[in-house]
Amino acid sequence: MSSPCDPQYAPAGDVSAALMVIDSRLKALYDGRTEADPEHLRMVDQLAASMGPDEFGALLEGACTLIYMYMNWLGRACEDHGKDVIEYVVPTLVATMRMMPRTFRPEVVPTMAGLLIAAGSGLSPNLWRAQYGPWTDAEMNPLEATATLLAEYVNRICGDDRDFATRLITDALSRAEED
Description:
This protein has one domain (10-178). It is globular. By secondary structure, it is mostly helical. It contains eight helices and no strands. Helix 4 crosses helix 7. The mean pLDDT is 89.
């Protein structure tokens, strides 16, 4: 039986814009910057200023699509080793979230964990979240950070290849365009 949260019913959103934001955030992490990079902030502000509500919604959907794609890839990698993606990925990321109280206020951690679990269960994170009402302002930064942590996790398990997660998505987008 199909779920109303099945990814086939979810719009992909603006995956390219979401990937650009996440890739920029990863580069800042790898450069050892702990404070917000002024150039990144300027880029995000410029992107946000150019967006209307529809484009901003597409960016949110794109971030959820990235979470889904990364969890899907991690799920296949875990299966190859006889492991469960939810059991091995979610606790690690939630523990990291809990160590970042300025980014992840305690009340948003369950929502971000829910997005990961929904994606790890084969559901659309965006449609899963939509059941509980519209996104809140308090969830914007944690959503970006969740996608970034997940991409960094993918990079780390791939031999610390700092660009693997970005290549994974760009390759998938290229294949989708060819089809």
